[in-house]
TrEMBL record:
Enzyme Commission identifier(s): 1.2.7.4
Name of the top EC class for this enzyme: oxidoreductase
Signal peptide: none
Protein name in the entry: Carbon-monoxide dehydrogenase small subunit/xanthine dehydrogenase YagT iron-sulfur-binding subunit
Domain 2Fe-2S ferredoxin-type: from-to ranges: 21-97
Organism (species): Povalibacter uvarum
Molecular functions (GO terms): 2 iron, 2 sulfur cluster binding; anaerobic carbon-monoxide dehydrogenase activity; metal ion binding
Length: 180
């Protein structure tokens, strides 16, 4: 097979490290400059550098989902994500869900329906449930179960999480209907 043009070989990736480097991140709508070691995870930057301690470190292996945040609108485990890999992307943490003093509907519903006990898994659960509600305000119980399927709650408050999420969805869905 012949090609009309010259094919360039792929360029080698640029190497970084081992010394720290300065990067810019978009966290909760704010541009922040941080200096990170190449092996630093996103959750470490959020908690230790930026002081956003709502995002929890549970297992530090991507198995419990306590560290869940949004990256460009998708729910990710921030303990399994290098800070260098999220440059130029939008990060939203539990602190970024509220609008000033107004909580996100899922945050309000978690309080109203007692969907938290020790609170350790709560931020990650809220991030996953809020993403579901924003994408599908008519979500079903099965969809809520799927959204939290990777979350580990040792207190066993799942039934209240389900109720809270469905209530928040109904609230959001109702307010969207009222706007029509």
């Amino acid at each position: 097979m012949s090609y009309a043009g010259k094919i360039e070989p792929p360029t080698a990736p640029s190497l970084v490290g081992p010394e720290p480097l300065e990067i810019d991140l978009d966290v909760n709508g704010q541009r922040v400059a941080v200096k990170v070691d190449p092996a630093t995870t996103l959750v470490e930057v959020l908690r230790n550098t930026l002081g956003l301690t709502g995002t929890k470190i549970g297992c530090d292996r991507g198995a419990c989902s306590a560290c869940s945040v949004w990256l460009d609108g998708d729910v990710i485990a921030s303990c399994m994500t290098f800070a260098l890999d999220v440059r130029g992307r939008k990060i939203v943490t539990i602190e970024g869900l509220s609008k000033g003093d107004r909580l996100h509907p899922v945050q309000e519903a978690f309080i109203e329906h007692d969907a938290l006990q020790c609170g350790f898994c709560t931020p990650g659960m809220i991030m996953s449930c809020a993403r579901l509600v924003e994408r599908n305000p008519q979500c079903t119980l099965d969809e809520v179960r799927q959204a939290v399927s990777g979350h580990l709650c040792r207190c066993g408050t799942y039934p209240n999480v389900f109720k809270a999420t469905l209530a928040a969805a109904a609230s959001v869905s109702g307010s969207k209907e009222a706007q029509k």
